[in-house]
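User: Second chain of the day. Same drill as before.
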Amino acid sequence: MTSAQSGKSEALLNVVGYYVDQDPAPMLLLQPTLQMAEAFSKDRLAPMIRACPALAGKVADAGSKRGGNTLLHKQFPGGHVTLAGANSPASLASRPVRIVLGDERNKWGVSAGTEGDPWDLAKARAKTFHNRKFISTSTPGFTGVCPIERDFLAGDQRRFWVPCPHCGEYQVLRFANLKWEKDKPETAQFQCVGCEKLIDEGHRAAMLANGDWRAEQPFKGHASFHIWEAYSPWSSWASIAKSFLIAKKTPETLQVWTNSVAGETWEDRATSVDAITSSGRCEPYNAEVPAQALVLTAGVDVQDNRLEISVYGWGEHDTPWAIDHVVIAGNTGGKAVWTALDDLLFNREFDWECGGVLKIASACIDSGGHRTQEVYSYVEPRQIRRVYAIKGASGDGYPVIQAPQGRRLAESKIPVRLHLVGTDAGKSAVYHRLSLPADDPARAHFPNREPFDDVFFDGLTAEKCIIEYRMGRPKRVWKKKVSSARNEPLDCAVYALAAVHKLRPNYRTLMRRVESAAEKDSPAQVQKPKRSRKSGGSFATSWRK
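Assistant: Same format as last time:
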């Protein structure tokens, strides 16, 4: 169990190289998908074989006449290495193997098709070998359901201990002992748990050279290891501190930091929200849109007989400010409701406390229901105006919004770019902001006006996250608290969040423009955002005065 880019894939490659050169055996190396297995073979395995004379002399390149090797199957004297995807049942049951290697276990599905757990299927291939070996690596995910955490806790739990350069006491480098001056991450140093002196990063190489793995539990045939970015020669302690200060501002970024930098599981406390009443949660706004909200997005849920739209304003740290929730009644198979949606998204102006007005900058529309083609038809000519077709993707590992996938309508020459939205991550983020204390700057805000009544809040908190067991494995699942509950406000909030994640606004730049306009004693004029010609530009860089 490791942080990202800490050598776990390289460790698997070294294992492959050892068995090719020193102890020939049939091997199976699994990646999360077949496509990732092909990429691993091209980008990692083939270059290693070419660069190492001992291996190049035994394993032929794919496509050569020697050995009949292919991209996913490489033979050598006395054995072979087969690469496969954990999502492909056929590749898991193809042949007996002695060595089973699994990479990025946390990104695997619960089941390979309908066959069951992919890791169990793969290990079953090695039953006939008395000297079989199984090795898996991964960055972790959620506490309690992460497979690499489960395997780590089942083993002897080894961590790397290093000596203090001052007193010689051995210890594990833990993030809690990384200290720096306030707002100066460049001063980051580890504090010794013994003498309490600060350890400069210049000592790290010598500490690692004299370190050793120590188990926290008895060895019972299962060795497990944990290491994180503080040990990596490619990361400085200052960069770890800096990345933490940036990541801690929102739960989404902090979760990524915890998994990818600290190499620890993320405990999601925002799995449910108690009943919220409008009288206990709503607050007065000084205008339709408060000064702290710098950009507006909309999330659109599509039902057969109506559209439901939530409009949210967003401020620094993606702090949400609810602005409106609109229901457009009518048959969504016709044109009238979509015309009304046009009027809301492109024509409606919201009075802004800073002066002037704000318009909706972006919207995400759910295409996963019965009106998929209608959503595609609506979105296609409006994509350039930052209106996106989305489809919910449940399960851990999906970000709030992913890069688009191409979809083409029969009557259209322009593909509709479909974005997958991680509904689990989105709901966790919404609930986290709902559950924050009143003095937390990232807490969600709601105005004390219609339509933010008790019915709205019942829909916003209609679901909870529970643990279910599928194929014998724990899985986080979001379910309605009451089967008849209406959850459209929650879905709309997730889609509006996805829209602002797609925009990636630079709040500090926007705030500076507001302050500059105020200093000139003129109302801030908010114009329609234009598309930046620079690739990779953020929403803020395309915002014109």
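Residues 8-139 form a domain with the Rossmann fold fold (CATH 3.40.50.300).

User: Great, on to the next one.
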